[in-house]
Amino acid sequence: MDLEKFKVHGEPLIYGAMISIALATIGILVGLTYFKKWGYLWREWLTTVDHKKIGVMYILAALLMLFRGGVDAMMMRLQTAAPEMKFLDAQHYNEVFTTHGLIMILFMAMPFIIGLMNVIIPLQIGARDVAFPRLNAVSFWLFFFGAMLLNISFVIGGSPDAGWSAYFPLASLEFSPTVGNNYYSLALQISGIGTLITGVNFIVTILKMRAPGMTLMKMPMFTWSVLITNVIIVFAFPVLTVALALMMFDRLFGSQFFTMANGGMDMLWANLFWVWGHPEVYIVILPAFGIYSEIIATFSKKNLYGYTSMVFSMVIISLLSFLVWAHHFYTMGQGVMVNSFFSITTMAIAVPTGVKIFNWLFTLRKGRITFTTPMLYTLAFIPIFTIGGVTGVMLAMASADYQYHNTMFLVAHFHYVLIPGAVFAVIAGFHYWFPKVFGFRLNERLGKHAFWWIIISFNVTFFPLFFLGLMGMTRRMYTYSEETGFGPLNMLSFAGAVGLAIGFLLLVYNIYWSTRYMPRDTTSDPWDGRTLEWATPSPIPAYNFAIVPKVKSLDPFWESKQKNVPLFEDKITKIHLPNNTGKPFILGVIFFFLGFFLVFSMWIPAIVAGVGVIVMLAAMSFDQDHGFYVSAEEVIATEKKLRGETV
Ligand code: HEM
Ligand SMILES: [Cu+2]
Q1: Which atom of ligand 1 is closest in space to residue 474's alpha carbon?
Q2: Rounded to the nearest whole angstrom, what is the distance from the C-alpha of residue 75 to the centroid of ligand 2?
Q3: Of ligand 1's atoms, which has the minimum distance to the CA of residue 422?
Q4: What is the end-to-end Cα distance of the chain in Å, rounded?
Q5: Residue 556: is the preceding peptide bond cis (ω within 30°)?
Q6: Are 186 and 256 in contact (CB under 8 A)?
Q7: Please, what are the averages of pLDDT over each run of 10 residues along the chain (647 residues)?
Q8: Residue 453: closest CA among 427, 475, 432
Q9: Which residue spans within 76-139 are E strands per DSSP?
Q10: What are the start-end ranges of the E strands in 533-645?
């Protein structure tokens, strides 16, 4: 076998990465053995089917990926901070912007959202778990091992280097001969299947498992946003699945779907990619809208203004999201009629989005506002996201886009949409729901420090890019000469990126500090919440609700507190729960090896792993889990302990 193809050569950077990965792995293994935590890890986490623990694992993985994607971002900003920098060469710059984009969107923003959704949705609808808990574990492990597969590409074989959009013919074997884009097609495929399964699982959960009395129009706004998002997932992800499969055939087996020869068509890739890719943006942004809606209502002490119009706006956005994909390639020559159509549909999205912005503002009006950390992120989101939206309308004009296309103006625009629209939201949601999951709050002072660092630095990093774009600096350009005059603004942007890094470090430090020193909360309702998740004890017992709540209004928990309406009327009886299982984890591991062997065209091992996947799936289909019961006495004892009172 030719070992040469596994090796990556290059700067000290790569060797540094290899050594730190090796050291971190050894450190974790030694630590687990020394503290005798292997059994705990396996029993409590790797085999869990509990939606809360799966959610926590998603969020931990997302934080790890935020770090990785952030390091990529810092490397790019450093490389372009001044003219003619020699920190990264062209090839590595290509790899770094590609993995940065992929990791941030697919392995950071989306899993973070899915993590919050896992933790919160069953609680918000008064359910004891998701509809298919074991399938939920399958989703997580496929996502996780897909993400790991992409991550090892940097040190084994080389990363994808044709941009996160992997346009053909650039991404074809002819022009990208390394294994990088094989990793792309397989890693995204594996984690994408996991996401698709999540979509099915959450649609069924929300439609079938709501507490008695919770009609669709009494669902909390976050639940609505997640329902709509998962419908988008179920329609959009199969397109990605097919596109990636065709890409794999082209690269591994010499088919010609995306080449101009033999009846293929390179624009077919661009179309398929964006038919998935644009809805993907809404997959991360709609749940964010849901999170902000919850936070605004809670910290204004009012119910959400324009509930019905909020729901309808999200439905309209989800429909429109499938009708705008060609705005990503106005300049590729599809003619005036087509460009006009996509121009109009794109601009139309601003209408329902504007409706939502106004609804949030009206909710704030005359509210009794408390400026907690999650609320600060929410308030900052509104104006910053609006800048992203307005520049989006500028880009939507096809004729004007001939000027902006593929410049730093676009890079500024989509970071102005994605960072407030997804990252601030998950951070806000993280601060907001943290006490529910762990039973104590994050420190507010540290939280606000981090907030100001992040908000100010964000603008310092990205606002200059609008001007750089208008000055003619194209995206994905690894260096430039002094005469271009791009230097000073890029330096400013680099300074902002350093500030952002400091902000994120403060956030991580806050998690550490609060875990050690914050007082444990015994009320289980630290923010005076409105929705059902705040009616459970914190930390949440495995069965969530000792008694299934009866919902009579929107914001049922708030009503129950204000008007003394009882939520829990039945008696405590025994509760049925599913058993843990190791099979989803093992399935993920086998998928990882299947992907890895295919990346390197190692056919025999790949066939063995492929058979392994089929055997595992067959074995899982014969699994009969009758679950187990928690007795009424046990439930009563747990409730007493967690609530510090008699039930
Ligand atoms: C944390 C601070 C961040 C910084 C400093 C940053 C910086 C950058 C830079 C410098 C580029 C490449 C520009 C170029 O040369 O073309 C880029 C591209 C990109 N970024 Fe970020 N970014 C950040 C966060 C994010 C986040 C949170 C997301 C998504 C949720 C994101 C998504 C993307 C995408 C999709 C690309 C395009 C990659 C490509 O061209 O293929 N970034 N970013
Ligand atoms: Cu789009």
Answers
A1: 16
A2: 26
A3: 30
A4: 67
A5: no
A6: no
A7: 70 75 84 85 91 95 94 94 92 94 96 97 94 95 96 89 94 92 96 96 96 94 97 97 96 92 89 96 95 95 92 96 94 90 94 94 92 96 94 92 93 96 96 93 95 97 96 94 95 97 96 92 85 90 91 89 85 90 95 96 96 95 88 88 67
A8: 427
A9: none
A10: 575-577, 628-630
Query: What's the burial of 30, exposed, middle or buried (CB within 10 Å: 0-12/13-18/19+)?
Result: exposed
CA distance 142 to 44: 19
In sequence order, the 6+-apart residues with CB closer than 8 A to the CB of 352 are 312, 313, 314, 316, 317, 320
Buried-exposed string 424-439: b where 16+ CB fall within 10 A, e elsewhere: bbbbbbbbbbbbbbbb
What was the pLDDT predicted at 175? 92
C-alpha dist (Å) from residue 518 to 59, 107, 479, 514: 21, 30, 47, 5
- Decide: 144 and 61 in contact? Cβ < 8 Å: yes
Spell out the residues 6+ positions from residue 404 whose beta carbon is closer than 8 angstroms to its own. Answer: 394, 395, 410, 469
C-beta of residue 391 within 8 angstroms of C-beta of residue 413: yes
Regarding the beta carbon of 166 and ligand 1, being less than 6 Å apart is answered no
Q: What is the pLDDT of residue 647?
A: 45
Residue nearest to atom 14 of ligand 1 (CA): 476
- Is the link from the previous residue into 169 a cis peptide, with omega within 30 of 0? yes
Give the largest Cα separation in the chain, rounded.
Answer: 78
Angle subtended at Cα 24 by Cα 22 and Cα 27, rounded to the nearest 5 degrees: 110
What's the token pair of residue 480?
A: 């430039």
- Tokens matching residue 110: 């989306």
CA 312 to chain CA centroid, Å, is 24
Tell whether ligand 1 has an atom less than 6 A from the beta carbon of residue 76. yes
Q: Collapse the DSSP code of 120 into the 3-class scheme (helix H, G, I; strand E, B; otherwise coil) and give the result.
A: helix
How far is it, in rounded angstroms, from Cα 647 to Cα 70?
A: 47
pTM of the predicted model over 0.90 = yes
Residues in the chain: 647
pLDDT for 645 = 63
**65 touches ligand 1 (CB under 6 Å):** no
CA 584 to chain centre: 21
* 444 alpha carbon, distance to own chain's centre: 25
Residue 305: predicted pLDDT: 92
Is the minimum distance from the CB of 500 to ligand 1 under 6 angstroms? yes
Q: In the numeric block, which tokens belong to residue 380?
A: 């900052």
| CA atoms of 473 and 490, how far apart (whole Å) | 10
Q: Closest Cα to residue 77, out of 642, 499, 531, 616?
A: 499
How far apart, in whole angstroms, are the C-alpha atoms of residue 411 and residue 343? Answer: 19
With a 6 Å cutoff on the Cβ, whether 77 touches ligand 1 is yes
Work out the burial of residue 450: count CB atoms within 10 Å of its CB; fewer than 13 is exposed, 13-18 middle, 19 or more buried. buried
